[in-house]
């Protein structure tokens, strides 16, 4: 076990989008910018800023256009945003983004509830988004959610997720991020899913996106690293999930992931002290405690 | 990875002792009994009830004698308590316990701060506790803490922990539980420590005791299971740690451990639904939210 660890892993930060979209009260634009600036300062080079969905559906992200225009990406930093459809893509392009992300579910019911489309309809919509984005010189990432389980259907056949992923890659997406959206995954299941995907798709075209709903996110990430995955999504301080059940249901905390990786000698390019500082900014911006463990405990300091 | 999983793992529950000893306000005796009864109902068969330390040092556990006399262990359930010295052992014997546990640190400074003894002094005290306990027909377990790191000394040489463990086993302890007391461990370090111990000591004489201070407890436990450990300490709902930093610094939550193990087809004999119920009792008894993830999220329920 742990005989085949990589030298480096890439972390894709989702807190400004996945973390803030569920907050009951929208966060002021200035707070979002402070969070993003702190994330960039920590050394994160891939950050998902927001989502170009309709403000009627997600009023928390109604400032997407302004936010993207206001944030400057330093050399080497890629900023992205979710785009559910052609209209979202046009807004992202107009705002000057170099990368966007499309998203859908591996389970029919969740896709319908989340996007009001069937899986085929989602793929059809993306076939009208991804090629124009590529022609405009942008990169497109894709999310496939509910790969480890669906809140409506229960178990999901990972072969369906693989089929969807292949179609998204065939459209021209550079990477598909596989999501344990409801945080039910356990390590053997993760190994099975990783193996299925790695047998069919090059590792660099894949990422893992764990939610820590039942505490297994980091153990699952460890399995993913060992199996050959090199790209992991995370959210600073575990920002995300339902604010009505603090501590539950959040994203894997970026600090916890980075702490584990650095502890195994795996580089991320991230300054963990500065990342913890970014988590404090997140907590200040959001106005409540956040569940990430390293966020709460900090690094070890010798006492006298 | 995960090619060599066992059919069964034994869970040693520490919440009544390790969980309650740090509470600012002592928990009423009746609340402790309700928690212990709920833990027994969940199928846990090894539970550490309390500590026979001086009430001057740990007033939270001043009711140890009465608690142990009041709790009845059903057939197949082993109850235990910490005993720091001969006086504690005599109290445990008088109260009718079949098992006790002794404890010390792998780092000199932590042992001194925690027990006011040098490591040699601790071993000397236990040489006057363990043999009489065995003669009285009791079993003795041992804890070695700070194996993954010391809050005063930083890194700890695991060879020192191994040497101490061998001496405790030579005294007649049936098992040594190795503790990441401050929750700094990462998986490669865990693999290194596990290998060192398993090369020198049979697995059944060893247990792992992780704190989830930095989120790595379950990932470390996964490494331990894979390496051959079959005994794990945990605390329901993550009870334990410092109540002034809720969510931080607690024990590995028993529900999270059991959820992961069951998800990999490893039996524990524990009914996870009833264990979650015991976590609710713990929360009610202690009067505050507890950090365990499965405790907060529950099992997956299909929505319609």
Architecture overview:
The structure is a homodimer of 304-residue chains. Chain A is of the alpha/beta class and 304 residues long. Chain A has one domain: TIM Barrel. Chain A has 13 helices and 8 strands. In chain A, helix 3 (64-70) runs parallel beside helix 4, helix 9 runs parallel beside helix 10 and helix 11 runs antiparallel to helix 12 (272-286). The longest helix of chain A is centred in the C-terminal third of the chain and has 15 residues, at 272-286. At the A-B interface, helix 9, helix 10, helix 11 and helix 13 of A face helix 9, helix 10, helix 11 and helix 13 of B.
Q: What is the quaternary state of this protein?
A: homodimer
Span from first to last CA of chain A?
37 Å
The strand count of chain A comes to: 8
* Largest protein interface, residues of each chain: A-B, 51 and 51 residues
Order of SSEs of chain A: EHHEHEHEHHHEHEHEHEHHH
Q: Which regions of chain A contain 5 or more consecutive residues with pLDDT less than 50?
A: 243-248
| Alpha-beta content class of chain A | alpha/beta
Helix content of chain A: 40-55%
Strand order of the largest sheet of chain A: 1-8-7-6-5-4-3-2
Q: How many structural units, i.e. domains of chain A?
A: 1
CATH topology of chain A: TIM Barrel
Based on Cα principal axes, name the global outline of chain A: globular
Mean pLDDT of chain A: 94
CATH class of chain A: Alpha Beta
CATH architecture of chain A: Alpha-Beta Barrel
Our estimate of the beta-strand percent of chain A is: 5-15%
The helix count of chain A comes to: 13
Profile the largest sheet of chain A: 8 strands, parallel
- C-alpha Rg of chain A (nearest Å): 18 Å
- For CATH, the homologous superfamily of chain A is named as Aldolase class I
């Amino acid at each position: 076990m742990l005989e085949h660890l990589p030298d480096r892993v890439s972390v894709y930060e989702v807190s400004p989008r996945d973390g803030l979209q569920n907050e009951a009260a929208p966060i002021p634009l200035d707070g979002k910018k402070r969070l993003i600036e702190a994330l960039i300062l920590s050394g994160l080079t891939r950050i998902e800023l927001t989502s170009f969905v309709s403000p009627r559906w997600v009023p928390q992200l109604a400032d997407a256009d302004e936010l993207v225009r206001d944030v400057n990406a330093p050399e080497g930093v890629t900023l992205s945003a979710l785009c559910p459809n052609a209209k979202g893509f046009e807004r992202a392009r107009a705002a000057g983004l170099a990368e966007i992300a499309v998203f859908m579910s591996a389970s029919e019911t969740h896709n319908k509830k989340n996007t009001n489309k069937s899986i085929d309809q989602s793929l059809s919509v993306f076939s009208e988004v991804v090629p124009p984005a590529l022609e405009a010189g942008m990169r497109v990432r894709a999310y496939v959610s509910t790969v480890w389980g669906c809140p409506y259907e229960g178990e999901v056949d990972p072969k369906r997720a693989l089929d969807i992923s292949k179609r998204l890659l065939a459209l021209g997406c550079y990477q598909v991020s596989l999501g344990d959206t409801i945080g039910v995954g356990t390590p053997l299941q993760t190994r099975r899913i990783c193996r299925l995907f790695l047998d069919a798709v090059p590792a660099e075209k894949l990422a893992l996106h764990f939610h820590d709903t039942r505490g297994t996110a980091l153990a699952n990430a460890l399995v993913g690293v060992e199996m050959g995955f090199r790209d992991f999504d995370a959210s600073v301080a575990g920002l995300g999930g339902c604010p009505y059940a603090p501590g539950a249901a959040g994203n894997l905390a970026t600090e916890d992931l980075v702490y584990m990786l650095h502890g195994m000698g795996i580089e991320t390019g991230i300054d963990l002290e500065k990342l913890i500082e970014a988590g404090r900014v997140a907590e200040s911006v959001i106005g409540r405690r956040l569940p990430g463990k390293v966020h709460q405990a900090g690094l070890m300091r010798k006492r006298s």
